[in-house]
Write a structure and sequence with these properties.
By secondary structure, this protein is an all-alpha fold. 25% of the residues lie in helices and 2% in strands.
Length: 172
């Protein structure tokens, strides 16, 4: 897995932004496949059609990011915040979505979720739960509650407590 400095990440994001806004005439498309982006702050990043295959995005902040038509094949998105992000036609085949937050994500129903892992263990708004037939289902167990504990230092105390309550309300 490749490591990126913060400076290199900013350069890739800027080149991709230029590429998108010049219709491919300038800059270059972002290819961050097999890159360690664990805990990266990519909130509101403009990454349509970016390649993030096999990348580790564990606990990454993708809040409000544009990931439309991006390729996240087999990416690890465990504990990632994808709230308010645009996921229209995003490829999430075999991606690990364990405890990912999708609150108010746009176009999630158009994302390609074939064989995604732990979709039922992700966090959704009540409306999204209804849309994906998850409302009222007991999706979590004691092991999930224990697993959530290891991420206590990544999340704010308020956020952590909210997630604990979310899981407890949906436990077997």
């Amino acid at each position: 897995m490749t490591e990126l400095t913060e400076e290199k990440l900013k350069e890739i994001l800027q080149q991709h932004y230029t590429w998108v806004n010049s219709a491919g005439d300038k800059g270059c498309a972002a290819d961050m496949s097999q890159v360690n982006l664990r805990g990266a702050d990519l909130h509101e990043a403009d990454l349509p059609v970016a390649r993030l295959c096999y990348s580790d995005l564990t606990a990454a902040n993708l809040h409000g990011a544009n990931l439309s038509s991006a390729n996240l094949f087999k990416a690890n998105l465990s504990f990632a915040d994808l709230s308010n992000s645009d996921l229209g036609f995003t490829i999430l085949h075999e991606a690990d979505l364990y405890f990912s937050k999708f609150y108010n994500s746009k176009s999630l129903s158009y994302a390609q979720l074939i064989n995604s892992k732990n979709f039922d263990k992700a966090f959704f708004t009540p409306q999204q739960e209804n849309e994906f037939c998850l409302a009222g289902k007991k999706r979590f167990d004691k092991d999930d509650l224990i697993s959530l504990q290891q991420y206590k230092n990544i999340l704010s105390e308020k956020e952590f407590n909210e997630l604990i309550e979310y899981v407890k309300e949906r436990m077997n």
